[in-house]
Amino acid sequence: MSVETTLLVQTLVSGLLIGFVFALISVGLTLIFGVMDIVNFAHGEHLMLAMYFTYWLYTLWGVDPLYAVPVVAGLLFLLGVLTYRLVIRHVLDAPMLAQIFVTFGLMVFLRNLAQLLWSEDFRRIGDTLVTGRLELFGIFIGTPQLVASVGAALTTGALYWFLKNTRTGWALEATAENKEVAGLMGIDPERMFALAWGLALASVGVAGALLATFNPIFPEVGAVFVLVAYVAVALGGFGSVTGAFVAGIIIGVVQVMGGFLWEPRFKTILVYGIYLGIVFIRPQGLFGRR
Amino acid sequence: MIRRSKLLFTVVSLAVVLAVMVAGCAAPAAPGPAPSAQEETAAQAPAGSEAASEAVNEILVGAIYPLSGSLAATGVDLKNAVELATDIVNNEYDLNLPLAKTAGLPNMGGAKIRLVLGDHEADPEKGAAEAERLINNEKVAALVGSYNSAVTATASQVAEREGVPFLNPESTSPTLTERGFQWFFRTTPYDKLFAENFFQFLDEMKAKGYDVSNVAILNENTLWGTDVATLENQYAEEYGYNVAANIPYEANAADVSSEVQKLKAAGEAVLLQASYVSDAILYMQTYKQLDYAPTAIIAMDAGFVASEFVETLGDDANYILSREVWALDLAESKPIIKAVNDMYKERYGTNMNGNSARAFTGMLVLADAINRAGSTDPAAIQAALMETDIPADQIIMPWKGIRFDPETHQNTLGSGIIVQILDGEYKTVWPFDLASAEIVWPFPKWSER
Amino acid sequence: MALFEVHGLTKTFGGLAANRDITMRVEQGEILGLIGPNGAGKTTFFNCVTGFYPPSAGSVRFQDQEITGWPPERVCQAGIARTFQIVRVLGDLTVLENVMIGAFLRHPRVPDARRKALAVLELTGLADRQDQMARNLTIAGKKRLELARALATEPTLLFLDEAMAGLNPSEIHAAVAIVRRLQEQGITIVMVEHVMKVVMPLADRIVVLDSGQVIADDVPERIAANERVIEAYLGEKYRAAS
Amino acid sequence: MLRNRLPQLALVALVLFLLVFPTLFPEPFLLRTMILVLLWSVLGLAWNIIGGYAGQVSFGHAIFFGLGAYTSTLLLNNWGISPWLGMLGGALVAVIVSAIIGWPSFRLAGHYFAIATIAAGEIFAVLFRNLKWAGGAVGLYLPIVRGDRLVDFQFNESKAMYYYIVLGMLVATALVTYWIERTRMGYYLKAIREDPDAARSLGINVTRYKLYAMVISAALAAMAGTFYAQFVLYVSPKTVFPLALSIQMALVAILGGTGTLAGPIIGAAVLIPMAEYTRVYLAGRVGGLHLVVYGLLIVLISIYQPGGLMALLRNWQHRRRQRKLAQAAPVTAPAGGMGDGSV
Questions:
Q1: Which end of chain C is more exposed for a tag (fewer CB within 10 A), N or C?
Q2: Number of inter-chain CB pairs under 8 A, A vs B
Q3: Residue C165 covered by a domain
Q4: Which chains touch D (3+ CB pairs under 8 A)?
Q5: Is residue A158 domain-resident?
Q6: Coil, strand or helix: which one is B254?
């Protein structure tokens, strides 16, 4: 391959790799919104917590991030349910503002708590099972990034299968469709909401653990990813798992390709611009219903 | 029911907080400012107004630093440094530093300096507010600070308005000394000089027979990075180097592969990079992942000299060149550095770094001026600052001394050094006569390390 | 010339038609009952003619004016008011405020709007609850409030979407009384009802929808005897029973 | 008799207090804090018009604040145009931009809108970081003008003038809000907030009224921006365009109580001094603890008092009224969503 094509392909690959991570993060965000019309503004901080959990598991007990994935996912599932029970449940009938601000407050709280306890220092998990990189035809692929992408794809797949092929999954979707009806069908919305939070944070937990294998860990790390996630969620249509997943990948590619072909510093403008463009033409997003 | 759930919530949330607190204390890197800081601020709160009256045997100096928020860690270093300097001034120490051998300020009957701290959270507006407060409420005689160039800008603007001397030991944005301020003084050499150093260094490398004609410029595009890039471009032209690529990027990115791809596309070049720590680390990882190895990476300190940089990257951090203002290994040619660093380490548990060393020096310079002024009258202090002339052997910096330009009030004797990370340690490699280690050049290919 | 005419109105959602080629007319001053089993497309029809859905085909005329595809606000300004099947009161506002918001359409100034609103509250028997938060009303109260709010816009034609659903007999009785009073005031009314026996005594004429089509359009007496109607409803009964 | 006058009397007392404040407490830091309180009250009220009354949660209001600050500053630095004219210029720019952003965004449902505004905000931040003629990331310094002349809109000897200017702005903003609340517009905005479809069915042109609210809100925020620029004498993307700023505008409003006149003012009066003094007294000790407390505070408010501090007051009043008219109509319990007919 000529140098130019190699560069282009390399860029495309990098875009895809980061895109998958965006995708997984967005999936959790969209699930909560789909089921209960609430945007979790603390989503980035939950990602941050997941990364710290992974870090502590690694430093205190030498658990490799790869093995930590299920543990962290479990921990965050619990955290999700807890968050719902302690916080979200209280604002279900509150005005939208309160709903937005409750999770926003959570964000401020968690981020600064992390700063207070664990300081601003950057932490990184040194050697993991997935350290290193592959080279194919002059294209480089970081193993951790690759693993993360695969993990992201698998997790989303599993989630999708669960929603489509299990009773609970249906119940969840029914609740998303229409709470009254779901209620009449004898589904307890409360349980579904709690479940949604659990699953959402579990998936962000997976993302965090995988991300921790190659991304430095610090209190603001969530902010770096979450804005993109919002865009992905809206782009894919609030509540649509597939939508968020695809949108996440699209954004990854657009960002990296655009940055390479255009001015890198305008990457963000590109992403948000496209977002605005699409929602103005199609307010329900790419895959959004109604 | 409601009541119960409320209670439950409060109890649990408290429990959670406590739990995490405990967990946090277990964490190695938990921040804990030195106790001395607490007494100080505790004393400061009530004191304030009456301090003005007893100003005779106590001179108040305000220090404005990012003590909380995202730069808290750095802020604490800086605070410790000015505290140490104050202590050296106030008590007798056998050190060859201004005012060390005497207790307090001899010209003012041994009056002692008391620091009053201000926290600006890296926010220019808050910086200005603190300057306002320290000057008017605490009645400080002068100010030091404030690390972030943007904050220094606004805080010194207040000082300029109020007519109070503002000594800036560690902000390097060129614009600061180009405002024609009467009350603003800067001891640290600034980016203009550092940028020029790069090309002087490259010329000397050329002289040694290495091929360096292309440079690529990569900078985060906030205040600081932009300034740096502008200067580097200027000097590249002046010194006749070809700028192969010029890439400003958005700080705190999640992914920088497109930037790195652009660099690769630019081909062989010496990379001049200006990044804060999160980006610096991400870039190094991406360089490795995409196998990008330029002729050399010369960084404009910041992220590349932050303690996390080496901690996080380990061996991957090696061979990075960075401009510095200070390095511990300078002690080999300047013993005073060791003496001071030992005191610092004993009190605060860490070694000094470029920031603390500069803050320390700045505080001494200010104290020296106040002493020579012989009063707390701002005008007198300002005049004394203008007269400042401290020889090289009385400072812990690798400078030729301290003397302020009558126009810009920029220290004209400052100079920078270039360090290289070798086995995880910062070694001075330039100027060659101060070097404590042999420079590794060019930057080794990733596959060969 | 009829007050309100619909010609060949069709509304499809992704292939399946909720309304198929509906043609009907509403005469000045009459009460028209629009009935049909669940999913017959009654509400869709309402949403089409009041501008909430753009019709896929067909035309809607009101007072010799083509209003097809007009946005809801414009339809309302033209003189067509509606209530919603699932009540949509403005919960965080008081009963009075709810009605005033309707009244503002014809009375931009606050005092006038309040006067108008109070009058309507009087008419609909909500006067004693004017300071209550709308969300605290019972279902019957909310439905009545929606009606009052719609009336406050001083419509010529009023669409009531299951205004009686979920009310107990005495509440229904009251509601019926109100509707009659409105007719006396010369307001033309189209009322969707699921329960036939409510409309029978009230309506001058009844149109029956089933699976999106008009299957009957006649005076109540004969509707009651209409084969297809009974069939449609029997089917419905069975469905309901199962 | 007197009890019914109580609110008016309180108001008069408050106004008098505010008028003499600088003479009572000439001490600069206190005065500065007070100025910030007033400034944030203005911003809170401005945000409240679109976010509180119309219920369109905007996380992009920093855009308008920033445009106000930049417009006046650029006009002043490049052509020496008085900041007072600059203030109007900024308001005008903000009006245009807000219309351009608002028009399409209003088609978006609640959360889409919130995020669209975040996106717009980010775009402006990046844009201004890269606009050379607007100082780029370095930002713009305003020249120090001695003499404290009103026309210069810059006062170095005493902050009092800044105080009275921002106080005037607050009064103006409050009057605008009061006017909105007492006219059809206020009712319409509330209707739109509660249920856009119901609003449309009542002949309300939802988009138009949202746009009115947005434009007014933006203009006011922009004027506050100009004031800020003149007050700090430094403008940069980092200081006038950050998301945090947009969020604090909303926070001030929600803390005090959205959709009310007094709410944002109360919110600012509580939040800003808290922020300032925690910073002063915690300096160097437990860095950032106050931010943790904020977070918790916001969560607790949203859960237990979504109406903000105002709701507390209102409940208290309400209870007093209830006690007065013992024979009030019995408030019937809300009927659950299930009964609302089939779907």
A1: C
A2: 132
A3: yes
A4: A, B, C
A5: yes
A6: coil
